[in-house]
Amino acid sequence: RFANQVLGQVQIIEPWHVAAINAAQRLVPRSAPMRVVMAASATVIAAGVSASAVWLSLHADATLYAVNLATDRARAALVHGAAGLIGNAFGQAGLDTVRSGGLTGLAISGGVVLAAIAGATLGFRALATASRRVGQ
Predict the structure, then answer these.
(1) Is the pTM higher than 0.85?
(2) For residue range 5-18, what is the model confidence (pLDDT) as tens digits?
(3) What's the pLDDT at 83?
(4) CA-based, 20 to 30 A from 49: which of 27, 55, 57, 90?
(5) Are the beta carbons of 54 and 47 closer than 8 angstroms?
(6) Crossing angle (nearest 10°) for helices 32-58 and 60-135
(7) Distance between CA atoms of 49 and 16, rounded to whole angstroms?
(8) How far apart are CA 94 and CA 83, in angstroms?
C-alpha cells in the first residue's frame, strides 16, 4: 500500500522521441484499406506541392509579377481604408493634415493617439485603485 501511494506521486517523464512516435502512430489508421487511402492522399498532395514548386521556379517572372501586384493592391486598399477611417474620425481637416505630413505625420499621429490611450488607461486604473483604498 505504501509503495502504491509513493509511486502514485512519482512523475514519470516520457522522452520526446517516444512521445513523437506515439503521436505519429495514433495518426496512422489501423485498417489496411484506410492506410491505402491515406497513402494515396499523401502521394497526391506531395505531387501537387512538388509540381507547384517546379512551376514557380520555372516561371519566376510571372510569380514576381503576381506578388508585386498583390502587394500593391493590398497597400492601396490599406491606405484607402486608413484614409476613410481618419476622415470619419477626424474630419476633412484631420485627413488633410495626415496627407500633408505623409507617412511620418501618420506615424507621429498614431504615436500620439496610442500615448493618449495609454495615459487614459493608467489614469483610470489609478483612480480605480485609489477609490478601492478609500472604500476599505
Answers:
(1) no
(2) 888 888 888 888 98
(3) 79
(4) 27
(5) no
(6) 110
(7) 29
(8) 10
- Identity of the amino acid at 35: R
Say what the pLDDT of residue 41 is: 95
Q: Which residue has the higher pLDDT, 34 or 60?
A: 34
pLDDT tens digits, one per residue of 50-73:
999 998 888 888 888 988 999 999
What are the residues whose beta carbons fall under 8 Å from the beta carbon of 101, sequence distance 6 or more? 108, 109
Q: What angle do CA 27, 28, 31 make, to 5 degrees?
A: 135
- Residue 30 in grid coordinates: 489501423
Got the DSSP string for 48-78? HHHHHHHHHHHTHHHHHHHHHHHHHHHHHHH
Do residues 109 and 98 touch, judged by C-beta distance below 8 A? Answer: yes
Q: How many whole angstroms separate alpha carbon 67 and alpha carbon 50?
A: 20
Cα end-to-end distance, the chain, whole Å? 51
Grid cell of 92 as nine digits = 476633412
